[in-house]
Amino acid sequence: METLSFDSCIAISPDGKKIVTFSPVKKIKTLEFKLDDINNLSSSESISAPISEVNNELLCWSIAISNCVDDIGNERFIALSCFDTRLETNDINKKDEEHGGRYFSQTWVISTKNSNEICNSPIGGVIRFLDVCSAKNRIVIIIVNKSGIYKETMSNNIKKRFFSQPSKIEQFELPQQLLICLRPRPRPRPRLRPRPRPSQDKSQNSLKLLYTSIINNYFMVHSFENRKQIIEMYSLITGNLKMLFKRHESSVAPDIIRGSPIFAISQKEKILAFCRGNSSITLYFMENGLEIVTKQLEGQRGIHKIVDINFIDDDSKLLIILEEKEEKEDQVENFKIHQIFVVWDLFTTFENSIRQIETSNPLKIDVTHRLLNSRGKMFAIRDNGDIFSVFDHKDVASIRNSTTPSEKKMTEIRDRVDHAIYNVDGKSSDTSKLIINNVEPWHPNKSYFRISVYLDSTESTQLIISSNTIQVWKYNNTIEELDKRDRVLEYIWARNKEIEILELKVREREFLLEISAKDSTRTIHWPNNVNVLEGACRALYVLSEKKIEAGQENGNQIKYLVECTQRLVRKYITEYGIFRLTSIRYPIMKYLIIGCQESLIKHILNKKINRKNSNIYIPRLYEKTIHFSDQDNNGSTKPDPIESDLQYAILCIQERGNSTTILKYLIDYYADNAKEYNNYGWMFTVSKAIPLLYDNNLREFVQYLFKKPCFGITEAYTPPLHIKPYDQRKGNNAAVIYPLAVKPRLALKSNNTSRLSLKNLFTRFQTSRNDRKVYIVPLPDFTVYPIQKNRDSKDLGNNIGNYSKYFWFLFTFFRLSFWLRQKDIDGIKSMSPFHRVIYEEKGYEIYQTPTIMAVLSFKWSAARRYFIHHIIMYILYAISYTLAFESNEIIVSICFIVFPCTGFYLIVTEIVQLKNEGWHRYMNVYNVFELGSVLLPLANFIYLFCFKEIILPDSVFLPIYAFTDLVMWLEVLFLLRYFEVPGRFVYIIISILNNVLPFFAFMLSAVLAFGHAMFILLKVIDDSSLHYTTYKIEDTSNSSSSLYSNITIKQDIDRSYRHDNLYSSFFSSVESVFFWTNGRWDQLDQWDNYAIDVISILGSIILVLIFQNMLIAFMNGAFDQANKESHTAAHRYRTKFIEALEKPDSEKDNPRYIYYIPDPAMIDTWLKETKKEEEQKLRLMGENLAELTESTDFDDYCDDDYNCDDNDNGDGDDNQDNSKNEGSSSTMEPKSIEPNTTNCDKFLFIDEEIFTLKFASSKLSKKSKRFNNEYFK
């Protein structure tokens, strides 16, 4: 059996300058290292350090080398660790009686300057030095074993021992999913005695997992369950979760993971490559965690295995190393290992973008001994221990570049005459066979510069270079049937500037062109090293600009060129992998948006695969500063505040007057994918676009966005959150939403054993199986504020360094008690997206969104203490005011101290809020009451104790005192609105008043009318209509003398007196009429006049029967609406304190992700209401949901409409039938392979979407064949 063995450990420094090698022997007394400089591999340096004797039996070794630790650059640290992988935990006190002693683990740190041992530690494991560039002479070392992750930061200026002080060591627990893989699983007892297995198999598997988990400065954890693949990427520097990668495996993928996972991160940390077992490679976009492409691997011989993957050539290529086992027929249990190199050009559309070769000189490599890759350089080790560059390997060099070998050299076109035509040999040719001539119809004069070259001997492929474009056209039919109606555009590249040809070389189906445009140069090598898709999208943008410049002239010709370019883009829409890779490398969607390509964008965003969205477009962020060489005639570099395609769509609406269709397409695409795949990565560009929507008067799209279901059903991945049982219980019992103050990170280990035992004592209970789900706000950085340079903080707490530490306690107490925090945000431009939403939105609808409620609840948990502080201060203010008028001198003295202090605090609060918000603050009834409740008591207090000489009568002062007291206690009730239950009641009352106030004002006008009529009538009417009430005294005694029998008492009525005549004045008349609505008809029975009867009857009908019942009906409707809206009332009221207490610089208060546990009933209710509102809108628009769904299937776009174009992949006429399947899916036969590779198994790397369709088609074909056989049988 052929195999490759490893006798040494090797490591490269994080800066990629030094390589260290260690070869362990059976008994080690001296550590012997070999140090190589990558710039001079021919000579090496030996380093020796004596140690106590170590028995190498059953030990595993790990080595690492640091960057320079001194300013001179002469000293580095070499760390060597040995450990026994049989240990389940690396406890140095654990004994192994079975093996005659304890397990051994040790770590040494050696200086390369003097070969001295800096320190040693009993902690052993996989060891690494991190690449920390934030500070000089800062060394971060980590050790990973089954017991956890140990990290220590050391400065070279302080000579201390690594891992010598437990209090200085940061200890992290291993992630839960990794512990599951490392934990030994109990196996059922077999009936038959199994074949004995090596004792180290489990240990070796654990070792492989630990080795593969550390990539650069990151710790990777992979899990796979229920066809859901999840990768957790933690930063080893901070311990925080950097990114979460999720994808759903296809139904044809294997359920069992074979082999250890392999990770590779690109040099610029843009792409993560991942291999799960042996059958596929997945690329992820590290900006948002979204899957870019998955390539399925198919072979025809033996069992294939991917042993290593690495990014090379400025992250533009992926080097894949495969191993294939070929079983030998003549020998039992023997096989031959074939090693195959594969180079994948990630961002080209060339048919030969994936090249492979079987090597006769295999590299020594496995999971724990991968190729050394640092800063774009790759190294491997030979059998004799020498280091060499992988790029110098002849087989790697032969497939590294995509140049097609040809015996014929390229012909240089030297005499570039204007409008000249050349053949492929560089000779002048006939103009009669031109495929196309006027390729830039926007020029008013047709004599513009252009040069044409035929790229084949049959003159059926034409390269034409003109002022602004480079185009390749081709006839799609045979040479005998040339017809210009069958010509197709095969390649186009354009720019707004005029281009100049520096060099032009051609040969059969190939050209090499170097051009310049003022200060920039560019080399185009077609078809080997170009991206046709990027060039076509860029050209559509340029053509749209040229069409505007040309106006109506030659409009049909420009339209024809645009349509041909659109067909070229559509051709690559079915090439799923290359389209996604192009979208993350080049701003193709930006070009389409600026070029107003609505139909093309609609087709891209809604492309279906098996009735599911293909997701061929991936959102991305652009650089802050870009070169405007395509748009600026000066070619200068300008700052570009636009960061995403969504922002470009918004700006195009504002600046160019484009329709909002593209913006709606993008919002739907992001939100619907986030819902379907439960992945918030689709929304990571939306947060920063929200303020731009408000800036451009597109508020309706913000409201439209937050009605998307993803804002209520996006579930969180909980293992990295480490949710406490207490928080889970609180969430289970939450009436609406319970926010979680958690951060996804590695769990810290506690060095305090007693504290850990106490913690376990109180958290011993198990959580219920019916725990509510944890959700996440699907807007990363929703609460994060934009970075502002040179912003002076107004918070006094930021300047505490200026105060003496001896007075810090007193200063803090004074600041918390009497100093109100001032606003840290200067204008709406410096607000976070969340702050902008609550600043702009005053309606209740958006506050019903679970996402907004969750963020408000999270923010309120931090602002609550300031609110409690404020309400306590006001209650003290109110109580001291009330008791200040008591007769007890002690109480009055206390109140005389408390009232001015609290009043001063409240006055300062009002002044600060007035400064921050302006006078429009007092357009709110709550703020008016708040101002009155502060000023009125203060004015009364000042009058009582400072102006006693001005004595007001009790008839004046007591009403003022009573009214002031009423306002104060109403303010106390209003302050309760920040709590959920009282807040509902306050909102309902105020809402009813606001809704019925217009009708009530109209009703009062009727009352005024009736009151005025009664005033006029009863003021001038004569006394004849007045009915006096008469009382007669009757003597019922038996006395003979009736002294009182003739006494009669009559009522004396003065019509001008208010108590005798309620209608004697206008105001009293109106008041009396108003009380008719309450059933008070006083004094009307003492008038005997038909006019009074008529008016009172009309008043009874209009005011009582009609208006009063209408008022009740209005109040019922207002109550129902207010009751519906009141569920979010407390959250809206809290925005006042949240806005005032925002801390832009606080990472704790503004995390990137916010998690919460909602009430499921609330989520269901919101989803139903949102769906109902959407259906109502569609119904009003005269549309039907079913028709809308059918219209979004885009069945009218057939991918086979351009089959004639799909055969043109630059392969000549011989391979036209197969070129469609080759393209970017790269089912290719490489042409750049040495002759000794003819027996190499041709591996096929197929896009997973195509692989799934192929598998389903094959399965259906087998079923059909079996059915036919059984039927005819």
UniProtKB/TrEMBL annotation:
InterPro entries: TRPV. Residues 185-204, 1205-1235 are annotated as: Disordered. It comes from the Eukaryota. Residues 1221-1235 have a biased composition (Polar residues). Residues 185-196 have a biased composition (Basic residues). Residues 1205-1216 have a biased composition (Acidic residues). Keywords: Membrane, Repeat, Transmembrane, Transmembrane helix. The keyword Membrane applies. This is Ion transport domain-containing protein.
